[in-house]
Automatic annotation (TrEMBL):
UniProt keyword annotations, A-Z: Secreted
The keyword Secreted appears for this protein: yes
Identification of the protein by name: Putative esterase
Stretches of the chain forming a coiled coil according to its record: none
Highest taxon in the source lineage: Bacteria
Family annotation (Pfam families): Esterase
Location of this chain's protein in the cell: Secreted
Amino acid sequence: MLIGLAMNDAGGYNAESMWGPSTDPAWKRNDPMVNINQLVANNTRIWIYCGTGTPSDLDAGTNGGNLMAAQFLEGLTLRTNVTFRDNYIAAGGTNGVFNFPANGTHAWGYWGQQLQQMKPDIQRVLGAQSAT
């Protein structure tokens, strides 16, 4: 419920728009936490990034209300991602990158940086050549 409220506040987003309500079988089918054993068995490459909710210079200019929501969401997400990492490793997972820096809120500036860090890994996994 809190995620839905925060998403609506951030721009009218609906938490059920991706996989439907949490009671829908599609939700479980696409939930990585539920599918850890399959991810490990398939040796699926995963990359998990999550900040702590502590703002940095990337949040400069963000209005107070949006920043508070971004801090809350990232803090909540961090706990879930750390639990996922621990369960993944306990299940024998070895093909994952887990990046939990000291700063970072739920905002595009951080995700853009992380995508740049991921780019060589994505290209390698997909067998794509670098354009640079």
